[in-house]
């Protein structure tokens, strides 16, 4: 088998040339980074879990009419996706105060926001993905006004669906990030959802205990990252309840750490 041509490598994924024109293969790594890659590590098995979780969520979103780049999962770590022109804007959807929002505005973490807030960041690792406004986006031509309307509408639709999905399995969707891309039909560009949706890019808290079930466990040196990701997968019905692949109970994890 010929060696695949690598198109791009990011902090959590590698993109390879796809088997057909207009497709790519997205490979999920176990690498973990935080604070714009100032903190680096590995979460064993993270790539496998994120691949499976993202496949599940993108499939559900596709079923309700949200256009995405996802085509199908190929194996434990790879999925086939449509090649898109990535819009250089990261969209952060916030339902609950946490992370940088709490620090910037002095709002206690865990405070329910009066309404869902959309924030935008310019995708540039060297600059640390700085926050930007609609004015910046328009002035520098990163996306048209029509595209930004589509992006905002899709972000709210995704948030409404995911908030209900996670609430149904006892998880509070605190915030999450989204990326979008353009696909072209002659001269007409259409916005679709791209990248991934997984515990790497979401803040997910247990609704009863406020236990963090996401990458904050890595960011804040809480430990139990693998168990947290597995717990999300288990509640979504992607891991069996028993057997060797059963997750460790988060309460058991805390007890082992003497907390």
From TrEMBL:
Q: Which PROSITE patterns does this chain map to?
A: SAICAR_SYNTHETASE_1, SAICAR_SYNTHETASE_2
Reactions performed catalytically = 5-amino-1-(5-phospho-D-ribosyl)imidazole-4-carboxylate + L-aspartate + ATP = (2S)-2-[5-amino-1-(5-phospho-beta-D-ribosyl)imidazole-4-carboxamido]succinate + ADP + phosphate + 2 H(+)
Keyword Repeat on this protein?
no
The GO annotation for biological process reads: 'de novo' IMP biosynthetic process; cobalamin biosynthetic process
Q: Which Gene3D superfamilies match?
A: ATP-grasp fold, B domain, Phosphorylase Kinase, domain 1
Q: What Gene Ontology molecular function terms does this protein carry?
A: ATP binding; phosphoribosylaminoimidazolesuccinocarboxamide synthase activity
Q: What is its EC number?
A: 6.3.2.6
Q: Name one GO cellular component term.
A: cytosol
Q: Which SUPFAM superfamilies match?
A: SAICAR synthase-like
A Pfam short name: SAICAR_synt
Q: In which pathway does it act?
A: Purine metabolism; IMP biosynthesis via de novo pathway; 5-amino-1-(5-phospho-D-ribosyl)imidazole-4-carboxamide from 5-amino-1-(5-phospho-D-ribosyl)imidazole-4-carboxylate: step 1/2
Every SAICAR synthetase/ADE2 N-terminal domain range? 6-235
The UniProt keyword set, sorted, is: ATP-binding, Ligase, Nucleotide-binding, Purine biosynthesis
Q: Does the keyword Ligase apply?
A: yes
Q: State the family it belongs to.
A: Belongs to the SAICAR synthetase family.
Entries under HAMAP family matching the protein? SAICAR_synth
What is the name of this protein?
Answer: Phosphoribosylaminoimidazole-succinocarboxamide synthase
What organism does the UniProt record list as the source?
Sphingomonas mucosissima
């Amino acid at each position: 088998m010929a060696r695949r041509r690598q198109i791009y490598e990011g902090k959590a994924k590698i993109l390879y040339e796809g088997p057909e024109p207009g497709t790519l293969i997205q490979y999920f790594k176990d690498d973990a980074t935080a604070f714009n890659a100032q903190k680096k590590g590995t979460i064993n098995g993270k790539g496998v879990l994120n691949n499976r979780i993202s496949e599940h969520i993108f499939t559900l979103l596709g079923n309700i009419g949200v256009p995405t780049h996802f085509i199908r999962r190929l194996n434990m770590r790879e999925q086939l996706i449509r090649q898109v022109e990535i819009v250089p804007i990261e969209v952060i959807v916030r339902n609950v105060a946490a992370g940088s929002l709490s620090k910037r505005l002095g709002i206690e973490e865990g405070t329910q926001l009066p309404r869902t807030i959309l924030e935008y960041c310019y995708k540039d690792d060297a600059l640390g993905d700085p926050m930007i406004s609609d004015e910046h986006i328009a002035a520098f031509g990163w996306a048209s006004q029509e595209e930004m309307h589509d992006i905002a509408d899709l972000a709210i639709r995704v948030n409404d669906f995911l908030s209900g999905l996670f609430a149904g399995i006892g998880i509070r969707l605190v915030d999450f990030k989204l990326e979008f891309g353009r696909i072209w039909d002659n001269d007409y560009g259409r916005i679709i959802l791209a990248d991934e949706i997984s515990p790497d890019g979401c803040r997910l808290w247990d609704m009863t205990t406020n236990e963090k079930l996401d990458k904050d466990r890595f960011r804040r040196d809480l430990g139990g990252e693998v168990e947290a990701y597995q717990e999300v997968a288990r509640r979504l019905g992607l891991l069996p309840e028993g057997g060797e692949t059963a997750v460790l109970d988060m309460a058991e994890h805390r007890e082992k750490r003497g907390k």
